[in-house]
Specification:
- This protein has about 575 residues and is an alpha/beta fold.
- The chain is built from 13 helices and 30 strands.
- Among the domains are: about 5-50, CBS domain Like, CATH 3.90.1280; about 180-290, no CATH class; about 290-340, no CATH class; about 465-520, no CATH class; about 545-575, no CATH class.
- The strands form 7 sheets. Strands 5-6-7-8-9-10-11-12-13-14 form a 10-stranded mixed sheet.
Length: about 575
C-alpha cells in the first residue's frame, strides 16, 4: 500500500497522460526533449518531469560541489568554547557554521538537537536553507583514514598530499585532482597508477612522464599526447609501442640521448619554447571522437564497461543511466553527478552507497532519502542535514514511523502543488560561492552574471600572509634556471604572475623540481590547476556535439567542439590511422 496516498494521486494526474514532447528551458532558453525513456524513469522513480534542460540541471548539481578545485579558507570553529580556526571550504564571511573534524565526527553533539517543526504554510526551500545555516557543516569532507592531508578535499586513504582534490589511495601528491593509486607526482589531473610524473592529465600507468596527456603505459617521456606503451619519447602524438622518438621522428638511441641532453628544461625560456612547439603539434594530432570502451547501446563519452547509458560521461561499470556524469557501479539512476554504488537515485550529487534517494547532496550510505544533505547511514529521512545513523526524520526531528509518512505525504503534496517538488536545491541556496564550485569549471560565469541570477557570489578573500616577515619576489626576480635556485627560496614569498597572490615553495616541491630539472613556477598553485582544467576544456566536456569525421565525412557524435577545428576521426578511421 502507498505510504503517501495524497502525493501519489496528485503525481499520477501529471504522469498518466505524459507523452514525449519538447520543452523550453526557463533558465537558458534552449529547447530540449522529454523522451519516452525519460518518462519511464519518472514513473519508476515517482517524480514529475523536470523544468530545466539537462545542462542546466547539471550546472545546478555542480554548483553544490567544490571538489574540482582544492579551495581552502580559514574559518572559526563553532564548537562551544573553541576559539581556533580550521581549514574549510567556507570563508569567515560565509554564514554557515563548521565544527573541527575531531568534534564533528565524535558523539559529543547530536544533529537532532537542531531539529525543528516543518511549516506547511512556508516554501520548503526557504525553510531548508535556514536549517543548513543552523546545523554545523564538516570542514572539507576529508577521509579520517587519510594521513598528513590537511590541505586536501575529500578522498580516500591518502597520505602526505597537499592542495589536492579527492585523492584515492595515493601518496605524496602535490597540486591536482583525482590521483588514483599514484605516488610522488605533482600537477596532475585524473591519473591512475602513476609515479614520478609532472603535469599529467588523464594518464594511466606511467612512470617519469612529464607534460603528458591522454597517454598510458609510458616511461621516461616528455610532451606526449595520445601515446600508448612508449618509452624515451619527446614531443610526440598518436604513437604506439615506440622508443626514442623526437617530434614524431624516429632516432637512434644515441641520437635521442644526445638531442635530449641539449634541451635544458630547467630554464624557463627553454621550457616555454618547448610548450609552444608541442601545442602546435597538438593542433595536428588525430583525435578519436569518443573514448568509450565496452559501452553497449550507449550514447556518451568516457564510458567503460557500461550498458544502456544515455547522455552520460565518465561512467564506469554501470547500466541504465541517463544524464549522469562521474560515477561508477550504478544502476537505474538519472541526473546524478559524482556517485558510486547507487541504484534508483535521481537528481543528486555526491552519492555513495545509496538506494532510492532523490534531490539530495553529499550523502553516504542511505535508503529512501529526499532533499537531504551531508547525511550518513540514514534511512527514510526528508529535508534533513548532517544526520548520522537516523531513521524517520523530517528537518532533523525524529518521528514515529506512521507519523513520519503522514507528514511526508503532506509536505510532498504541498511541494508538488507549489512546483517545488521535483527540483534539485536551487543554486541560490548553495553554501559555496559559484566561482569556487564545480559549476564555474564547466559553466564559467562572470560576477555580473552570477549576481544577476541571484546565485552565491563571494568577493575575493585577501591573503592573511604577513608579507613584512618575508622577502617578497616578483615573478621576474625568481631565478630563470632551477640550477640557480638556492635553499633560501623556502623562506621567501613569490607573487603570482597572473593574480598577484602570494605563495611559497615547499621543501618537497623544491626537491622535486631539482630532481626533474624543472624551473620554479611563478603562478599560484590554484591558478596552475585552473589552467589544466582550461586545457581539459577543449577535449572533454560533459557534452556531445554532432559533427562529421574529418577523414571520411561520416556523421558522428564527438566530445570536441567543432568550432575548435580539430582532426576528429570516427572509430574506424582512427584505428586505421593510429593503431
Amino acid at each position: 500500500m502507498s505510504k503517501t496516498p495524497q502525493f501519489d494521486k496528485a503525481l499520477e494526474e501529471i504522469l498518466t497522460n505524459l507523452k514525449p514532447h519538447q520543452r523550453t528551458c526557463p533558465q537558458c532558453g534552449s529547447v530540449f526533449d522529454v523522451f519516452s525513456e525519460d518518462i519511464e524513469f519518472y514513473k519508476k522513480l515517482k517524480v514529475p518531469p523536470p523544468t530545466l534542460c539537462p545542462h542546466c540541471r547539471l550546472q545546478r548539481r555542480l554548483g553544490w560541489r567544490i571538489n574540482f578545485l582544492p579551495i581552502f579558507y580559514k574559518k572559526s570553529c563553532s564548537v562551544p568554547g573553541h576559539k581556533e580556526k580550521v581549514i574549510a571550504f567556507y570563508s569567515e564571511q560565509n554564514p554557515v557554521k563548521v565544527y573541527d573534524d575531531d568534534y564533528y565526527l565524535s558523539d559529543k553533539w547530536d544533529p537532532l538537537s537542531f531539529g525543528r517543526d516543518y511549516d506547511l504554510q512556508k516554501p520548503f526551500f526557504e525553510q531548508f536553507n535556514q536549517l543548513t545555516l543552523t546545523v554545523p557543516h564538516q570542514t572539507l569532507h576529508k577521509d579520517p583514514q587519510s594521513i598528513g592531508c590537511d590541505y586536501v578535499v575529500s578522498g580516500v586513504s591518502a597520505k602526505n598530499c597537499y592542495y589536492v582534490g579527492t585523492p584515492y589511495f595515493s601518496e605524496n601528491i602535490y597540486f591536482g585532482r583525482v590521483p588514483f593509486h599514484s605516488k610522488d607526482c605533482m600537477e596532475v589531473l585524473w591519473v591512475e597508477f602513476c609515479e614520478q610524473c609532472y603535469e599529467g592529465i588523464n594518464i594511466n600507468r606511467c612512470y617519469n612522464c612529464n607534460f603528458c596527456y591522454e597517454s598510458s603505459n609510458c616511461l621516461d617521456s616528455y610532451f606526449l599526447y595520445d601515446c600508448r606503451n612508449c618509452q624515451h619519447c619527446f614531443a610526440c602524438t598518436n604513437l604506439r609501442n615506440k622508443k626514442y622518438y623526437f617530434f614524431n621522428q624516429s632516432l637512434s638511441k644515441e641520437e635521442y640521448q644526445r638531442t635530449i641532453k641539449e634541451i635544458n628544461l630547467g630554464q624557463k625560456s627553454v621550457l616555454r619554447e618547448c610548450r609552444k612547439k608541442f601545442e602546435q603539434l597538438l593542433k595536428d594530432a588525430v583525435r578519436k571522437n569518443l573514448t568509450n570502451v565496452k559501452a553497449e547501446n550507449s550514447i556518451g563519452n568516457d564510458l567503460k564497461g557500461c550498458r544502456d547509458c544515455f547522455q552520460s560521461f565518465g561512467v564506469i561499470n554501470s547500466e541504465n543511466i541517463r544524464y549522469s556524469a562521474s560515477m561508477d557501479d550504478c544502476r537505474d539512476v538519472m541526473d546524478l553527478f559524482g556517485a558510486s554504488n547507487n541504484s534508483f537515485c535521481y537528481e543528486s550529487t555526491g552519492a555513495t552507497g545509496l538506494n532510492k534517494v532523490k534531490f539530495s547532496a553529499k550523502n553516504r550510505t542511505g535508503l529512501d532519502l529526499e532533499y537531504c544533505s551531508e547525511c550518513n547511514n540514514c534511512e527514510y529521512c526528508f529535508g534533513c542535514f548532517g544526520l548520522k545513523n537516523k531513521k524517520y526524520c523530517v528537518f532533523n526531528k525524529q518521528y514515529k514511523e506512521n507519523d513520519y509518512w503522514q507528514l511526508v505525504d503532506k509536505i510532498k503534496t504541498q511541494m508538488l502543488k507549489n512546483n517545488e517538488y521535483g527540483e534539485f536545491f536551487p543554486l541560490s541556496m548553495s553554501s559555496f560561492p559559484y566561482q569556487d564550485s564545480n559549476a564555474q569549471i564547466e559553466f564559467p560565469l562572470t560576477k555580473e552574471k552570477i549576481l544577476k541570477n541571484n546565485w552565491h557570489w563571494q568577493e575575493e578573500i585577501p591573503s592573511d600572509i604577513d608579507l613584512t616577515k618575508f622577502e617578497v619576489l616578483k615573478p621576474e626576480q625568481v631565478p630563470d634556471d632551477i640550477a640557480d635556485v638556492r635553499n633560501d627560496i623556502l623562506d621567501k614569498v613569490i607573487l603570482c604572475e597572473k593574480t598577484g597572490k602570494p605563495f611559497r615553495i615547499t621543501k618537497f616541491e623544491l626537491e622535486f623540481y631539482r630532481q626533474k630539472n624543472l624551473p620554479l613556477p611563478i603562478v599560484h598553485p590554484l591558478e596552475r590547476i585552473k589552467n589544466y582544467f582550461e586545457y581539459c576544456s577543449f577535449w572533454h566536456h560533459f557534452k556531445l556535439w554532432q559533427t562529421h569525421c574529418s577523414k571520411c565525412g561520416k556523421k558522428i557524435h564527438a566530445g570536441y567542439d567543432p568550432a575548435k577545428k580539430f582532426k576528429v576521426y570516427c572509430e574506424k578511421c582512427y584505428l586505421k590511422e593510429v593503431v
